[in-house]
User: Fold this.
Amino acid sequence: MVDLTSLGVLLDEASQRLAAAERLRDSLGALSCESESRGGHITVQVDGSGNLTDLRVTQSAIDSGYRNLEYTILLTLRQALAALHDRVEDTTAGMGETGAAIVRGYSRDCGGDLSSHDIIR
Assistant:
């Protein structure tokens, strides 16, 4: 026979965990980070999922040449992703293994060297 009191407690705990997960999803989804290249010639913005939501490029950045421009856009995007990673880490601090798993997911998505070296001045 099932103990209804224990079942009720389990259902309450599950409901609380679901509500906490929904709040976390909403918090992470609301995040946004912006990064600007040295000199301010390129600005990128990413949303809480790491999607590029805004890209601004000055005429002087365009005049710098295709390879230079491409590199700096990608570098600035990676800097915005690194900032997002830091914000996710702050948001999930104190969540134990669940928070660590979320941060690992963002780390994997950012990937590579996230140094702040810029070549457009």
Residues 112-121 have pLDDT under 50 and may be disordered. Helices lie at 4-29, 59-63, 66-91, 96-110. The beta strands are 32-36, 42-47, 52-57.
